[in-house]
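A quick aside before the break. I want you to see a complete sequence-to-structure record at least once, exactly as it would be stored in a machine-readable document. Don't worry about memorizing anything.
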Amino acid sequence: MSKLALWFWATGLLFGQAADSVLVVVNEASLFSRQIGEYYALRRHIPLAHVCRVNAKVDEEISRDDYDKQIAGPISSFLRYRHLEDEILYIVTTSGEPLRIRGSGGRLAEEAAVDSELTLLYSDMHAKPHNLPAGIGNPFFGKVSAVFRHPDFPIYLVTRLAGYDFEDVKGVIDRSLVARNRGKFVIDLKSSDNTPGNNWLREAARSLPRDRVVLDESARVLTDQLDVIGYASWGSNDPDRKQRHLGFRWLPGAIMTEYVSTNGRTFTRPPDTWNLGMSWSDPKGLFFGSPQTLTADYIHDGATGASGHVYEPFLGYTPRPNILLPAYYRGRNLAESYYLAIPALSWMNIVVGDPLCRLGPP
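That is the input. The structure line, written in tokens, reads:
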């Protein structure tokens, strides 16, 4: 083994790449969830003792009480019983498990993503459970040189294996196993925008090798890009974007993020005739209450990892592409790359993908 290969092997261990650091949560009430959990555990060689089975509603939206009783409580009990609280770094949820916790909205929201609530399960188990309203600072945010481990960071990194159907999720898992560090990072700004979002996108481009970046600051929307390994944009919040699908050729291991409020609202497949709506007031352009892009479309089209929001997150709490893309390029796994870039937990964010997916050396 060369010195470079040895370094990346050691770095992988240091950054928690081992399968025994993963807990897979399967909803016994959902055949879809069971199929995904079993396939992932087999492909990633997850120990059977690290598969936690719960009995939860299959509804995408649940109450806070149902979350506590059907999801958080059983997972906590499982971790304690098997003495896995510290060994587990990553929790994987699946389609067929609840996605959103309903509640009041706004900056003092009680609504949240199930996965984002689960990130705090470690600290909830070791101290007093966190209180509402939602929105708690992520202790791992921006710690780009730190090793993710317990108890330094008293959280779990939670990702979801989800898609419109089993073939979509199977594709995510299979592509994660053959990911390589090649291809282009496509970064598409919104023209004439003075919010921090464009600055984060520009900084992401500056932080990556110039020959690996496609950057556009014009009004046009980038489509039909080849060999895409990373993508960041405003999604449907760019007024110049009119089409639902971008026509990209995604490489295995490719990830994406966008500044969109409701892209993770559902994993129910829309009709093929549905396109992005131009107005919130036009019911014909809405799907599951929103005219905006869908995280699941990126997965269906070939991305291996994706971020989303189940309710309004506000721009400042969306993943920062200037942290996400460079971290992933430099060797962090998918879960750590996304959570380094997410400012708040117990919030609206979801991360779709295999937490262990990693590009390896450039």
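Two observations worth writing down. The CA atoms of residues 24 and 51 lie 5 Å apart. The radius of gyration is 19 Å. We'll return to this after the break.
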